[in-house]
Amino acid sequence: MIQGAVLGSPISHSLSPRLHMAVYEFLGISGKYRAIDVSDEALPDFFAENCEYFNYFSLTMPLKEVACTLPVFKSDLPIRINSANTLVKRDNEWSLHTTDGSGFTSAIDHAGLTTLESTLILGAGGTARAIAQALDGRSQRIEVLARSSNRRSSIESTIDSSVFDFHSWNQTIDLTSYDLIVNTTPAGAADLLAESVPFNPKALFFDVIYSPWPTVLARKWSDSGGDVVNGLELLIYQAIDQLSLVLDETLHKEDLAKHLRKALKA
């Protein structure tokens, strides 16, 4: 039987248990998966005390960076972006991974976004770095709008091929010149940008938040005639990629994603 859990704080709102249990059902796997409230300070001790009882952990805020300090094997990508969302045990050895970037690209593929000239990412934390790296070379230009200039070097280092630019946070930024805008900030942090949303915006607005939904910015984007994708799509695809790592097999993403969308509506 597979034993899994999503760790983070706060965690009571998480839909990951419903998603992962739905995957088990779809694949005919026996397993249990639950949500456990773990702070960043508590993660090292929690992992040391509980790792023998679980097969994998999903990691959400605020654990994505501190997870990179755990004494486990780390694949190249979490090291590069200093962010991880998955811990997997195989043959009693634990390894650290991230599926945020791959899950994001699957989500925008599903949304039909195939050509990207310019992308704006709101925020520069772990999820933003994963998305920036995933879009490197796919979007000709990647720009970041963030509150802390101290984050500039960490997110710029994830980009090799795309042209990069960094903006200090301001509420009057021109949002008309992008094909994709991705909000990775905490709920409410980007609300004031709603005043800058143009009429009938051309960009796809992707908000990694799914609760509470809709965000102020997502509602304004939709009300102005723009296309919006919420964080459930990212959650679905990164969960599928996590289970691919756990089971060590390639899963049929779109079949599973269709099943998971139905499971979330049930």
UniProtKB/TrEMBL annotation:
Residues 6-86 form the Shikimate dehydrogenase substrate binding N-terminal domain. It holds the Pfam family Shikimate_dh_N. GO terms for molecular function: NADP binding; shikimate 3-dehydrogenase (NADP+) activity. One of its GO terms (biological process) is chorismate biosynthetic process. This is Unannotated protein. InterPro entries: Aminoacid_DH-like_N_sf, NAD(P)-bd_dom_sf, Shikimate_DH-bd_N, Shikimate_DH_fam. One of its GO terms (cellular component) is cytosol. CDD domains: NAD_bind_Shikimate_DH (cd01065).
